[in-house]
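Re: export button greyed out
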Amino acid sequence: MSETILEVKNIRKEFPGVVALNNVSFKIKRGEVHALVGENGAGKSTLMKLLSGVYTPTSGEIIYEGKKVEFNDPKDAQAKGISIIHQEFSLIPHLNGIENIFLGRELKKWSTVLDKRLMKSKAINLLDQLNAKIDPTQLVSRLSVANQQFIEIAKAISIETKVLIFDEPTASLTGKDIDKLFELIARLKAQGVTIIYISHHLDEISQICDSLTCLRDGEWIDTKKVSEVTKQDIIKMMVGREVINAFPEKLKVQNSEENRLLNVKKLSNNHIKNISFHLNKGEILGIAGVVGAGRTETVRALIGADPTKEKEVYINDKRASINSPTQALEHGISLIPESRKTQGLVLGMTVAKNITLPNLKVLQNKMRLIDRKKELVIVNNSIKDLRIKTPSANQQVKFLSGGNQQKVVLAKWLNTDCKVLIFDEPTRGIDIGAKEEIYKIMRDLTKKGISIIMISSELPEILGMSDRVLVMYKGEIKAELAGEEATQEKVMYYATGGVDNE
Amino acid sequence: MNNLADNQARPKSSAMSLKFKNLFKNPEMFTLIGFIILMAIMSFGSDQFLTASNLTNVLRQVSIVGILAVGMTFVILIGGIDLSVGSVMALTGTMMAGMMINFSLPPILAILIGIAIGVLIGYITGSLVAYARIPAIIVTLAMMEIARGAGLLYTGGYPLSGLPGNFSVIGRGYVFGIIPVPVLIMAVVFLIAYIILNHLPFGRYIYAIGGNEEAVRLSGVKVKKYKIMVYVISGITASISGMILVSRLMSGQPNAGEGYELSAIAAVVLGGTSIAGGRGHIGGTLLGALLMGVLSNGLNLMGVSSYVQMVLTGIIIIGAIYFSSKKTVD
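Workaround output, generated via the alternate export path:
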């Protein structure tokens, strides 16, 4: 048994119009936790898809267990012991845990009838191995995101797995669940499983990884032992420059009646109770809370995307009726949703067509036709202003990286006459460089008098960007903290259900 | 800053080559190639095929399904389906005939009433799909039954005849002595559809809704309104087809148009429009309709039985979709 379990040699992968990976070579040692870092669009996910058989490389070799391998499809890779836990899980929501774990490899009696009892006991065994207390007979759709992930992992290790790839596993998890995941990774490692770990969170990497490989713009930058590098080193490798201050300086925003833009009262529906808050002109209002606290539900109710039982919205002290996103847009309120791909963009359409979608009316000429030239001017300006990396305005957005997709969503609204922009997890799954750019854009917008509501699960982001912070817990606002009052401890205290009677 | 320079340096050449590549990625290209091959085969198979009078004839035969297919393109682009068009065509046609025969209304008024009924049916269908959120296939299946039943009820199950003689101009007349009126109508309908789909915000919304409805809704676009409008358009094209058919037959046939919805869907799909919505071209639909027309005309001339023709049509649909989906998969 050699020390190296997996090696890539001169890997190159091209997509139409883009070279995603170019001449990437490195080795992964048996039994280590190997981090893969890099900005969005650096090629991490593409590389992992090559290793797990989703794509085949344009050129180059994958050497696994000392032999050159070619995977035709994910099943092929799995059979040889390489599995991947995708960022978006590949579970079937209407099936239960057992059925998902054994999907496609069902155990049978007399090779015809499903052996449900055996599968159940095996599933329970697997979950015990993972130290996860989950009822595998529950429908997957009823499980929490964290538990869904455990089912996904159980599915992966139900086949003999030698290499397990995690793609941003903590993106949708919170505190305790992350700890549980780390314990699990440690246990898998102890069992001799090699783990490849993709993450944007450098803390996590120093906590659980042994070595790391950094990619940038599709090229291999370096492979190092984690113990030999500092966070600053890693960031330097990723962005190719030093990060001095991630958050732009805050402005002084008056929190007073005169400066009020938006007043929301008694917002209620099935998910949220009696939500009241206000927003000042040029302010960034952060909404903190754990996943499921009702933050997204609050803003969706505000813009009329979901029905409400009760709702009063005042804009500049005038009652506004907002019962649909269309009416919200008319009042200058726009949402940049949490999930770009499913809610923010039409992936199959071009950058240009996505950007002008909310704003086609202003592009109509006298004949009511869309003025393509004018459209192109507007779109190219947005591409320049926001520094969207795309070969052209006519590129389909599905080929853009996460950060650039987010900028496209942003460009959509910046071309409308908006007064309030709501960002739901603005930097989720986005690399550090693009994050900084987004922060800067947000702050610049407030300078122009635009007010921002920002939902975020990342505490540094909440604290670094917000002028005021609302903390939600179980569908209610538990605290409102002005800039200097807001500390990591306080926000966490309220976000985890602490009450106001110290 | 580097990237910025990059961005500006690259576009011209890569955009050009991209366009060229995309041209061959378009599923319509396959329809076009298939169409040309088919034309060639038919010209060898029958010496009557490649004559002006026969080709004009093909165009006229294609016009009714072609117009239905225009409405169907809109519906399929938003990710829907409309199974009711054949029945709606029969109902609106018999209503037009009835208005002229029983109430002696002038043809233009009768036509407008017929189209209004098409609009109404489309509006009801669209509302049920958009507001009641019933799947389009169910709503339009039901509407297919309702419209067929209503047409039979209205006529008592018998064809209505005794139409004013000048009404025949729509189905049988010629413009400039060579272009059949139905072909002209079809051309106008396609042209309007082309403008809507490619140059109006409405058209943009149709593609976008088919691509990702939720994203479009959150963009402040009135998705429900546009969905309804799409079914209304399908109702209008169905009633225009109904008008042409009645005029051509000079009678209102309550049983007309059975199975036409499937021919229209076939034309759309052959033309490269994705049945899942969001992707496709109106030009492809025209090609799809022409391809089916040429096929049936050519085989007729060669004396192939209509039963064999049906089998062949089915095989061609599957073959065409197989090849185009294989090519466009990534």
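Chain A touches chain B through 42 residues (CB under 8 Å). The button fix ships in the next patch.
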